[in-house]
Design a protein that fits this description.
This protein is of the alpha+beta class and 221 residues long. Helix content is 56%, strand content 9%.
């Protein structure tokens, strides 16, 4: 059975799942859910994802939502295929989990108001709250100073190998850097900048970008 990702490819969380599957060489198809039309809030969709968010996946008779849980699942299911995304030792695995939590709890809540106010709303012809975005950017700059200290010690966040700890950051930060005029938050930190250049140059991520830009709905290794 081909993995089904129910979501919209420009959205951050489906991109996180797509990236993980491509790193692992897993075929998938996108079941398009139009967020602008509110399709994620219909009774039919919310019967599968009760919080009305994207994505959820269908893998045979198994269904799962929450993108960070999904990438953990596939990184474990296909542990023997592609790069090791979970860490090799108990300690490395713990550090991967720690940075996944840092991204979800400390970074993502600051990224959202930046992207929403400076990219999403203007794309809909609505003026965003620039003051709110700027306030979030100032806080995000402080959070990224913690990343700078870590990346001065290790090549990647959880150690010397690319893992889910790094992968989970790419989709949302990409919009901050490329679409919100906030690239300085990365470029003004030597080690963060080198890390960002490295992880966004991965062939699997470039394939994600290609899927988004081409509006493709299928991927096969």
């Amino acid at each position: 059975m081909v993995v089904q990702i129910h979501g919209m490819t420009p959205a951050v969380c489906p991109q996180r799942v797509m990236h993980c599957l491509i790193e692992k060489g897993v075929e998938f198809e996108i079941i398009h859910v139009d967020l602008e039309k509110g399709e994620h809030k219909t009774p039919e969709y919310m019967a599968k994802q009760p919080f009305g968010q994207v994505p959820y996946i269908v893998d045979g008779d198994f269904e799962l939502y929450e993108s960070r849980a999904i990438v953990r699942y596939y990184a474990a299911k296909y542990a023997g295929r592609g790069p090791n995304l979970l860490g090799r030792t108990l300690e490395e695995k713990a550090r991967v989990d720690m940075w996944l939590d840092v991204e979800a709890i400390n970074l993502n809540p600051l990224v959202f108001p930046i992207v929403f106010n400076l990219f999403v709303l203007p794309g809909q012809g609505i003026t965003g709250n620039k003051a709110e975005a700027q306030a979030a950017a100032e806080k995000l700059d402080k959070v990224l100073e913690v990343y700078e200290r870590q990346l001065s010690k290790t090549k990647y966040l959880a150690g010397d190998e690319f893992t889910l700890a790094d992968l989970t950051h790419i989709p949302a930060l990409r919009y901050v850097v490329e679409n919100c005029g906030m690239g300085h938050l990365i470029s003004n930190k030597k080690h963060v900048e080198a890390w960002w250049a490295d992880i966004t140059s991965r062939p699997a991520w470039k394939k994600v970008v290609g899927i988004v830009e081409s509006r493709a709905l299928k991927y096969s290794p």
